[in-house]
Structures are given as C-alpha cells and as structure tokens.
Amino acid sequence: PTIKHCPTETYLLSILQCHPQTNPWIFNNFFNIMINRETVFDDFFRTSMFFDCPFISESRIQYTFVKKLGKDFSTFIEESVRNGFYVSLEINRNKSFLPYYTTITVDRRHYVLIYGFDEHTEEFLYSDFYSPSCIFAQTYIQKLRVHKNLLNKSLNNLGLFTEYNSGATDFIRLLYFDSTFQYEYSRSFTKRQLYNFLSSQNLYDMMPIPVINMHYRTFTKKQADQFEFGLNTFDVVINALREDRLYSIRPLSLFYHFSKIWLKHIEFLVTLDSDRFIFCNLIKEVSSWKSFSESVLIKGMIYMKKGKQLQNTQDLIKQISILKNQTRSVLEHISEKI
Which of 6, 140, 212, 280 lies 20 to 30 A from 112 at CA? Predict the structure, then answer.
C-alpha cells in the first residue's frame, strides 16, 4: 500500500489498491492529517476507517458468538477467508506465541489483517507492523497458533484485553470487498479539502456529535479540541521538539506518507485525458516535496538514535519549518490547477 503509517489506513489500502476501480475514492480521501497538541498522537483524519469506505462491508462478530457455534477460532477464520472475507483481529504479540515479534516479551495486543489461507501448510497469510523498526510486512501464522494465541489465558479467557481506551474489542472484523460499487472522482471536493488543510480547519468542529469514534479510539468533543489539523500539525511537532516532548518519529513518518499519497494523487490525475498536460508539470514538484519529506524523516531517525543535543534539535526544527513551507507551496499550486 502507498501508506504504511497506521494499521487502519494501511490495511484498508492493502485491500483497495488491488482493485484499480477504487482509485477515484482513494484520491478523494486522505486529504488531512491531525496531531494532538498534548500527546503528539498523530494520524490521517477519519476517512481511513473501514466503515467509512463504500467499497468495504464490515461485520463485527463477537468471540462469544463464535464459541456458541461450537467452532474453534481457527476454523471460523479459515471458513471466512475461503468465503472471500478479509479478517482483522487482535493477536497477542508476545514472542512466546509468535516468534516474529522478536523484541516483545510481555503480553501486548495489536490488530493484524488476515488475507489468505494455505491449505497445504495450514497457515494463514497475514500482515502487521514488525518490531523493532515497525516495518509493515506480510508473513504467515500456523492455524494451531491462531487458536492458541486467541485463547491465551494470561490475558483473559478470550485471549484479549477487555478494555482499550474507552471500549472493549472482543470481536473479529470480517471485511468484504464490493466489486460492484462505482465512485466518481470529485474535483470540487478535492479543492474544498485542500482549503481545509491550508487553513488548518479543525475538522472535528464540523461534527456536532458529542462523542467521536476515530479508528479504534473514542474522543469526546473536549478531547477533540486538543488536535491541530493541516499546516498547524508542523507547529505541534516543532513545539514538542523545543519542549523535549517528541518521543517518536511517527509524526515525521505521517508527513512523509502524506506527501507520498499526494504524488500518487497527481499521477492519477495525469491519467485523466483532459488534464494530462496540466498535471504532468506538477509531478516534478510533488516528487521533490516527497523526497525532501523523506530526508526529514531520515534526519528524525538519526536524531532519535544519536541523541537530542541542542544543535541537533535546532537543525531538525529548521528542516521541519522548511518542509511546512514546501507543503504549503505545493498544495497551493495543486489547488490552483484543480
């Protein structure tokens, strides 16, 4: 997938980008990013949830329901995959259960995406982010291990924590791709979302509901006010660096993947016959933006590894400020052409 930042959008694009007819929807989404001023938690905004995508039907099956069917979890998952479903669920990443998680020695849960089953080896094919560098990759898990992992008594009788943030997650997600759905790309929607990004509109203000479901987290309206959007997200990271509160390169990875999805967006617009020459000239500019964003991410990795001396902090702040200005310039040019 183009984006490999957070499980929800990564797993979603892993499915969608196998089907070219989803490109118009993909490039009418992933327009905005958000970062919490206090915690520096970051992500793409909202549209990366499975139930927000019209190509995906999501069903949530409680573990207790599977048990009442008299089936073990491995058999239920195998039958689901054979019937055309992708399966998303939480597994225990303790390396005593799954050796791929080489640095995790305690019980820790995480969503994975199961997308196939090898009947000869009786292994499920699944994707996850692997330690220590959180690289997204595909691997396999034995059918027997799925059953044992989900029944891990050290967590609870279902092999999962009962609470995470504000809600229980004792269910399996079954995801079905609808190949019949058609979506038409909207230029006006793109232009409106570019305005929201460039003006740093708080998109939660447009949502009147008091409790906001965001991926696997739930926010109250008050908590949502702690988020900055669009161009303001760069300032959040700069302030966190100045106050020695940046403990992860995740926000820099977000900036990189944001530029990366925009390059794919422009390449998509070039394929539209009437716009081929208009957007061809933008490809070089957007490619340069993506390359610089990647260089800032690499500098951030070195910064986290080698230490946070004052000079290194100031240098990284300068690079992020340049990246912010470049992001503004590129997106303004795109907005003029849309």
Answer: 212
